[in-house]
Amino acid sequence: MKIGITCYPTYGGSGALATELGIALAERGHEVHFITYRQPFRLPSFLPRVWFHEVDVGRYPLFEYPPYDLALAVRMHEVVRDHQLDILHCHYAIPHATSAWIARSMLREDGRDVKVVTTLHGTDITIVGQERSFYSITKFSIEKSHAVTAVSQYLREETYRAFGCVGCNVEVIPNFVDPTLYDRQRHVFPIPDDVIRGRKVLMHISNFRPVKRVRDVVATFANVAQQVPSVLVMVGDGPERVEAEAEARERGVFDSVVFLGKIDTIAPLLAGADLFLLTSDKESFGLSALEAMASGVPVIGYDAGGLPEVVQHGVTGFLHPVGDVAALTRSAVQLLTDEKKWRAFSTAAAEDARTRFSESAIVAQYEALYERTLAARELPAHMRTPVSFAALDPSIGLP
Ligand code: GMT
Fold it and tell me: What is the DSSP letter of 212?
């Protein structure tokens, strides 16, 4: 098949997953075209059967807000036309699924067509998509996609709850990891010994957005450090980094926290971690938690969103109610002070990541979805049963 993939190319789970999926599809013999404004951060410069098409957004002085959605639609239209793509796979609904709908409408004017698959990743449904300014276009774009997937059961249900959906089918296809890359044995931990000095390593990786509650990461660490000699490695960057730094200063642990900023290749870092902390109050899946698990790192986090579908409480990590830093601390100390228990959790996490979230099995699910979508005949507009998106919660998004 010939597949176009559009995602956010910058640091973030949806872009990481979309890129890994594209690479895996190309390895299986498909032709893959990434269409976005920058080379995705996890895409190496050259791979057989992989193309990158940059979207150039004109910077005319009149445009206070340059219309990226339109430039993307134009590029999608060109790439589908010039490379005869079968599928446009949009990761994150806004604005990608909308641009795909425009591109498809333009193609149909030329007597061509393409099938649109949209994967919902998280805040496109749980936060941004529910904002008044985006609600109806998000609903419309999901409705107009030929197939829609969500990365967890939680996100599927949240899509139905927030947008209402009669006569549509959101399929759950979970995220996956490359088991050969996220392997504890394979890497040398890059942080020098004179920084770690024999202490336990707690790690957090994210885009430091408010939803991640990074102050809770630091607060948990500060409590743990009083009982177990340890260091906190913070990977990534974003609006709440200053808050995390402030929390570290206020709690007197700033010297034991290493802020690394944005790092593209995290597998070697995870290979040296003892615990992974993820304290989001809404996490549709938690790809970084899965990458940690695959690397044999137990996860401590909140029992929120789709994270319980990834982390098995008491087996591969511990999950506690949002805000319960004391419980996070207890679980962390328990694992860090009981070597036998830590080893059991570490082994279970690595195994679970490889079985329930196996790359080959999940990529095959996407292939099957593409095939079904291509095979499905579309009824002419006048014969289609209207899909009704009735907002179940009247407070969301409606004018
Ligand atoms: O939804 C977002 O804020 C962005 C997105 C990203 O690009 O990091 O994150 C979401 O997609 C990831 C990949 O599917 C999931 O692992 C994350 O849980 C999800 N983030 C949230 O739900 C906050």
Answer: G
Ligand 1 centroid – CA 127 distance (Å): 11
- By the 8 A CB rule, do 204 and 217 touch? yes
Are 74 and 48 in contact by the 8 Å Cβ rule? The answer is no
Distance (Å, whole) CA 210 – CA 2: 38
| Chain segment 117-148, per-residue pLDDT in tens | 999 999 999 989 999 999 999 999 999 999 99
Q: Which atom in ligand 1 lies closest to the alpha carbon of residue 290?
A: 16
User: Model confidence over 340-396: pLDDT tens digits?
Assistant: 999 999 999 999 999 999 999 999 999 999 999 999 977 555 555 545 554 444 444
Question: Does the model's pTM come out above 0.85?
Answer: yes
Domains of the chain: 2-176+360-387 (3.40.50.2000), 184-356 (3.40.50.2000)
* Ligand 1 pocket residue status of 154, Cβ below 6 Å: no
